[in-house]
Amino acid sequence: MTYAPPLAEMRFALEEMAGLGRLRALDADGHLDHATLDQVLGEAARLARDAIAPLNHSGDRAGSRLDNGVVRTPPGWRQAYGAFVEGGWNALPFAPEHGGQGMPWAVATAVHEMWESASLAFALCPLLTAGATDLLQAHGSEAQKAKYLPRMVEGSWTGTMKSEMPRDPAGARNDLRVVSLENKLGIHASPTCVMAYGDDGGAIGELVGEENRGLEYMFTMMNNARLAVGLQGVAIAERAFQQARAYALSRVQSRELGSRDPGPVPIVRHPDVRRMLMTMRTGIEAARGLAYLAATELDLSRRHPDEAARAAHQARVDLLIPVVKAWATDLGVEIASMGVQVHGGMGFVEETGAAQHYRDARILPIYEGTNGIQANDLVFRKLGRDAGAAAASFLDEARADADALAAHAGDDAAAIVARLRAGLDALDAATRAMVALQAASPRRAAAGASPYLRLFGLVAGGHVLARGARAALAGLAAGPADAAFLRARLASARFYADHWLSQAPSLVHAAIEGGALVEALGDDEI
Amino acid sequence: MTYAPPLAEMRFALEEMAGLGRLRALDADGHLDHATLDQVLGEAARLARDAIAPLNHSGDRAGSRLDNGVVRTPPGWRQAYGAFVEGGWNALPFAPEHGGQGMPWAVATAVHEMWESASLAFALCPLLTAGATDLLQAHGSEAQKAKYLPRMVEGSWTGTMKSEMPRDPAGARNDLRVVSLENKLGIHASPTCVMAYGDDGGAIGELVGEENRGLEYMFTMMNNARLAVGLQGVAIAERAFQQARAYALSRVQSRELGSRDPGPVPIVRHPDVRRMLMTMRTGIEAARGLAYLAATELDLSRRHPDEAARAAHQARVDLLIPVVKAWATDLGVEIASMGVQVHGGMGFVEETGAAQHYRDARILPIYEGTNGIQANDLVFRKLGRDAGAAAASFLDEARADADALAAHAGDDAAAIVARLRAGLDALDAATRAMVALQAASPRRAAAGASPYLRLFGLVAGGHVLARGARAALAGLAAGPADAAFLRARLASARFYADHWLSQAPSLVHAAIEGGALVEALGDDEI
Questions:
Q1: What is the number of CB-based contacts under 8 A between chain A and chain B?
Q2: Which domains does chain A have, with CATH numbers?
Q3: Which is the catalytic residue, given A297, A307, A368, A519?
């Protein structure tokens, strides 16, 4: 149940799929030079691997407890969080004027992936602090910023989902208390509480910004929060994959098909187990690439010097966010389930830890807006507001990438291009039909929105892996450095094209025609 | 968390999809006349609904316990099992000479579905007893049959997965003991034990049949056991569906899309929730129809008077069993997961019970031969032994059913036929390619076996629903009786065609081409 951050894959995704170079070109601070980046990622990897990951399973078993009204996290968690704050990790993406390090979200996203893989339950606390910090940075008064931000950026004060933010520094307790802890399917170490406010005369709150604009303020932070949850899908999938791969390399059972040796072999030698592992790995590589791309677009929408470019990047990130959130978290559940399957009967026993990932992952398609809400957001807001123009621009860029890959020789490039073009044609047709359907029959469009989002995710994942494949081919042509790694990236892209991307065209029907049937039965006939 | 056995759907599946009439024509005992069948199903439904289903959630919370070496089932379970035995339900499918009732497996399968939906953990005990009973019926000596079968058929002695079967009627305990209970992801009420044998001088066992033929004997019972587990997939999906539907009808949230009324509505009115519920319902109807069809073929393989017909039915049941086991259990996990999603945040909280189904379902693709093993069985044994002849015969029959449905007027029939024919073409092509691949490259065939099995399941499910659609159209043409029910069956078949069956053609690629890539990377590069 160890976790080794896949630094090489993460760097490859940042550079070759997300196009970090675009951000590096704008970076005056040297935050993104290769040595600094290596150092940041390497240090985060150590903390995630050595201090946080070992607590994940024991934290699940012990859970958080309620002890005389005080929530106690599992043994070791306090110390690990201390090390996390001590290392300055909480401050990574926040503004330097509040004590932050001003790192781009693209890099913070890669770092956050490691905390999330190490322990989803642990990383929820910084994730919620980040949301509250974002809110105050954007909408707090100067007094509020001065009062709260330094300690929140540092991480010594933390955020929650509810408004627990005021605590009198002089020590008086606010009038709120924890009534009970929820009994949840997963993320047991994260204390989800039933709260009572004002039992003793009234709780104190502070208004952030103007009255009655809370929902609007929430929307301004939504892209970050939804990207963070999509990333959790990537992260739990990576953890489940690493565990399944380790098991498959060590568990010896049955003879090898096609071998004359009658002795049993590690189950990784069995083709169906290899298929599962490669399905897991390639789904992760695609979803990671897409999440990092969305993070880079987010940075460009804020950092690009040109206003029109900022607006274009904003439109792109708005388009991609619901896809990253919903598609990557659905993948997280599917891949965690495959991780259980690779273990066979041992996967159903809690001791191995595979089952924990399956339980933990299940919250991801639900919170921060259910995946159904993401699908509606994609269809009605993101396609609806510009009649599909942002989607068309994305399709154009992906087609250009397919063309560029097609210029390379070899079976792999040809196979990837063929499947990507089929996927792009399907997405193009579905997008046009969905834009038309929105006006003609909004309920049908809503009924087809989830299959449409899955189609979008499969194709967008194919697009970033095709970029990776092109970089791998270019790298292989340039020389022998990293040849094995680059050949593996090429194989990943092709496997994804054969096993994931090939499903894309079949979803057009469910997205466009399938919606008609949703109303065929009365509520009581379903 | 109630469960209401879907008797109308079960009767429809038995009569119109499985073709129970073929068995009724051979039935001299009157076991299958409509009144008897109604009575059996109705009585079973009462016991499942009133006595067993209410224990499912409390049993999960309490779990089985180990108390001074004795396993204690959760409160109320002993009494419920007593009522089950008292009612004669354990004896349903066994031979009358041992106290059984000689019911066909088709009927027993419908009855078993109710126990499994009521509580997967409860029904595991009779399932394991049935396996052991089958073994003794087929391979036990006359003395063994006389000693064990009456009480096992009755259910007062039960079977296990391991050979715990000898217990001296005079009262001396055998030298075996329970060391511990496994800490499992689900089916908590079912005591999965670590056992120790012979710590105190040696445990006593009895040899059944001849030495060294145990594995061969196991194979003779495998069809029954695998069918039973496939049925568990249907059953847990049905339970999860009923729970999600009840929640969606009662939970009020957000305004209705396309309505002028700004007030919140039950979430069943939201198109994406309807889509999920219909996806669940129609997947269940297809998998149930296929499981009942396999059970009926099993009966015909034993009861048909003509030897050639028996052999043909045997070939059909051998072909369908791995598909039912793997496809229906994969569906069980997917549908239980959708059930959590319909609940939103409440699905992640254990109190609602939705999460239990998600946990319980996860064992099904693993035990009784993992789904990967089923896929290999389908490709190497079931296609391999007759070069695809049994599959070709199944395809011919399904094509004839598609033609018969095509003779009916209307959009629904046309849409279902179009998707079914596309699925049949895909399955036909994949089957031919898979037969060729087996000889040319067995490891590639093995790597494509799971996608091939899924393709087979999706198409076979479409086939039984097309039969149902034809029966519904014929019934609607005949008169107004049951019109709403029959229209709903037609809508189910079309929804399945649009949302499930439409995925079939996309799997040909993963099944046939996708296998090539499984070997692209070394073991340590995956």
A1: 226
A2: 7-199 (1.10.540.10), 219-254+264-519 (1.20.140.10)
A3: A368
